[in-house]
Design a protein that fits this description.
It is built from 12 helices and 20 strands. It is of the alpha+beta class and 390 residues long. It folds into 2 domains: 232 residues, FAD/NAD(P)-binding domain (3-Layer(bba) Sandwich); 119 residues, D-Amino Acid Oxidase, Chain A, domain 2, CATH 3.30.9.10. Bound molecules: adenosine-5-diphosphoribose and P-hydroxybenzoic acid.
Length: 390
Amino acid sequence: MRTQVVIVGGGPAGLLLSQILHLQGIDTVVLERQSEEYVLGRIRAGVLEQGLVDLLRAANVGDRMDREGQIHEGFEVSWEGRRQHINLAELTGGKTVMVYGQTEITHDLYDARRAMGGTVVNKAEDVTLHELTSHKPYVTYRKDGKSHRIDCDFIAGCDGFHGVSRQSIPKSVRQEYERVYPFGWLGILSKTSPVSSELIYSQHERGFALCSMRNPKLSRYYIQCSSSDSPENWSDEAFWEELKRRIPEDAAQKLEVGPSIEKSIAPLRSFVSEPLSYGRLFLAGDAAHIVPPTGAKGLNLAASDVHYLSTALIEFYKNSDDALLSAYSETALKRIWKAMRFSWWMTTLLHKFPENKGFGDRIQQTELEYLFSSRAAQTALAENYVGLPY
Ligand code: APR
Ligand code: PHB
C-alpha cells in the first residue's frame, strides 16, 4: 500500500491533521492502536482557544461545536475567600474561549473522516517506522494477525506521550525537558448542573480545586490530590465534601451533587522533546509535549502544531517547497514553550506545594495578591488563556 502521509495516532491531533490534509487533496492513512470506542471513551479537557475553533470550522467539523458549545467570556479565581473575575473579553479586546468537550471533538472528527471516506485503521498493532532519514520512509503494522506495509512521503507522529514516534528519533538526537509535579488531579464527571456559569479556579490551603462543565447538565470537577492517590480511595461523598471545603462558600452551598459517571486521577507534568522533526518524521501534539491541565493547553497546543504541520505539508505538495517543513520544529516550539511557561505559571500559582514552606508560600501569596490587584497581571493571564497568536 502507498499513501502520501502516514499519521500515527487517531486522537484529536492525528484525526484533525488527516481531515485538513484530505480537504486539500492530500492522501493520508491514520493508524490508531486502540478501537474507536476506546478512543471515544477518554474524558479530557474542554476549553478551546479561538485558533482551534477556527481550525475545526475550516475543516468542516465545527457544526456540532457551534450548536452545543458554550462561549465563555471569563472565569473566576478564588483565594482565601476572595474572588477575582478574569474578564477575558474585556482584557483581550473581545477574545473568548469555547467550552466543548475534547471527547466530542474526537467524535466529530471520526464522523467526518468516515463521511469523507478517510482511511483510519483502528487496532493497528506494532506500528513501526522505517527509513525515516531516507526519501522513501515506510510504516509497518499488524492487524488481525496480518502484517502490513505502507510506503509514504512523510510520517506524522500524533501518537501521544506513550507512542512509538518520539521513541523512533534516536536518543542522541533528542533533548527532553521535564518537570513532574508532586500532586495529581482527581476528576469526576457528574450529570448535575454546573455550580457556576463560568469556570472557578480555586487556590486553597487544602489544595487546588476546579469547577468546570461540559454542558448545562454535565459538570466536571477536579481536586488536587497526592500523586500516589487512587480514585478507589475516594467515594463520591468524600469527593463532594472535599470539593465543598475548597471552593467559595456560596458555591459550596448551592453545589448540586450526584453520582460520578467517571472518576480518574491524572498526573501533572511539563514535558517537551526537541526537535519535533527527524528526517521525514514530524511530531505533533502530546507525542512532542505534555502540559499540566491547569491552563487547558494540551488540546490547544496539539491544534497549533497541526496548523503549522498541515500548512507546511500543503505548501510542499502544492508548490514543491519544503521550507516550511524544514522550519516546522523551530516554528512550533516557539508557541509550545510559551504555552509551557503559562501552564507552569498557572500551576505554581494555584496549587499547594508540600515543599513550599516559608519563602515559597509567601511568594505564591504575593503572586496572587499581584494578580488580584493589577490589571496588567490580569491581562497577561487573559491573553495566554485565550491563546497567543499562531
Ligand atoms: N500506534 C498507534 N497509535 C498509538 C500508538 C502506537 N504505537 N501509541 C499511542 N497511540 C494512539 C493513542 O491510542 C491515542 O489515541 O495515539 C493517540 C494519541 O492521542 P492523544 O494521546 O489524545 O494525543 P493528541 O492527539 O496529541 O491530543 C492531545 O489529547 O490526550 C489529550 O491531554 C491531551 O488534550 C491533549 C490532547
Ligand atoms: C475541564 O473542563 O476538563 C478543564 C477545564 C479547564 C482546565 C482544565 C480542565 O484548565
